[in-house]
Amino acid sequence: MLAPGIAHLSFVRSDGQPLDFIPGQFVQVHFQYADGRPTKRSYSLATVHDHALGPGEAVEIAVSYVPGGAATALFEGLPEGGEIDASGPFGRFCLMPADANRRYLLIATGTGVTPYRAMLPLLERAMAERGVEVVLLFGARSPAELLYGEEFRAFAANHPGFRFVPCFSRELPAPGSAQTHADVRHGYVQQFLDEFAPDAEGDIAYLCGNPNMVDACFEALKGHGLPVARIRREKYVSSK
Ligand SMILES: Cc1cc2nc3c(=O)[nH]c(=O)nc-3n(C[C@H](O)[C@H](O)[C@H](O)COP(=O)(O)OP(=O)(O)OC[C@H]3O[C@@H](n4cnc5c(N)ncnc54)[C@H](O)[C@@H]3O)c2cc1C
């Protein structure tokens, strides 16, 4: 468990094939409702990688369990070593080779941060090769829900161009804990956009996770003059 109710799950392809994925993409998990109707749900790949996953390399996802959720029941009932059907990868929520921006504004809530974890090697390359800066604004209710927080903090410590800003909506880190020394905020991510002075010319923004957050940030960034083409979105909604 990454946090209460949020699992980090790791799979390998049982057919021994590689998985050619671009960080930011997702897979779809296929299963049936209790009445036999087929359905599927999408999960972003969390695997930190910059090229195809070879045979036997882990396909990682982070799943936030939703009470009463159909896929949630599937994952909760899955024993270690259990198999699921999946397809993909899909999606275009990816860094683009032609990007010529000065800064990436990466904004997430909850498991919406997983695409950015997957992107770390590509971000590292973009920072080294073209001096791009990166700000990761990550909204979580509490320090316990700051998924992969230590990894992002360590990455920021080793990369001066990468700024990690956790935003806690409910509970701040306990006094004296490691997180109190970090660049933390108290509130929702969308409250802090102004502070980073979004720039229509230099920024490309990515928004991932809770649909209300994505919509709020999208409107705020448009208000700062960012063209729609420079605001890339992935909303975590159920596909029924
Ligand atoms: C492109 C894409 C990528 C996604 N990536 C991820 C990911 O990496 N990790 C992840 O955990 N999810 C991700 N999701 C969401 C995921 O696909 C499912 O929607 C989620 O896991 C709930 O599925 P479920 O079958 O358990 O619940 P459902 O049976 O679909 O829903 C049960 C009930 O809970 C409500 N509900 C559904 N989701 C939520 C929620 N998040 N919060 C509160 N109530 C909810 C529904 O409206 C419904 O009433 C992604 C969605 C998309 C479209």
TrEMBL record:
Q: Which InterPro entries match?
A: Cbr1-like_FAD-bd_dom, FAD-bd_FR_type, Flavoprot_Pyr_Nucl_cyt_Rdtase, FNR_bac, FNR_nucleotide-bd, MRET, OxRdtase_FAD/NAD-bd, Riboflavin_synthase-like_b-brl
Query: EC number(s) on record?
Result: 1.18.1.2
Requisite cofactors: [2Fe-2S] cluster
MF terms (GO), sorted A to Z: ferredoxin-NADP+ reductase activity; nucleotide binding
Q: Which reaction does it catalyse?
A: 2 reduced [2Fe-2S]-[ferredoxin] + NADP(+) + H(+) = 2 oxidized [2Fe-2S]-[ferredoxin] + NADPH
Q: Which domain of life is it from?
A: Bacteria
Per its UniProt entry, what is the enzyme's top EC class, as one word?
Answer: oxidoreductase
User: Mind telling me which SUPFAM superfamilies this protein's record contains?
Assistant: Ferredoxin reductase-like, C-terminal NADP-linked domain, Riboflavin synthase domain-like
The FAD-binding FR-type domain covers which part of the protein?
Answer: 1-96
Q: Which UniProt keywords apply?
A: Nucleotide-binding
Task: Give the family, as the similarity comment puts it.
Answer: Belongs to the ferredoxin--NADP reductase type 1 family.
What PANTHER family does the entry give? NADH OXIDOREDUCTASE HCR, PROTEIN RFBI
- By what name is this protein known? ferredoxin--NADP(+) reductase
Organism this protein belongs to: Luteimonas salinisoli
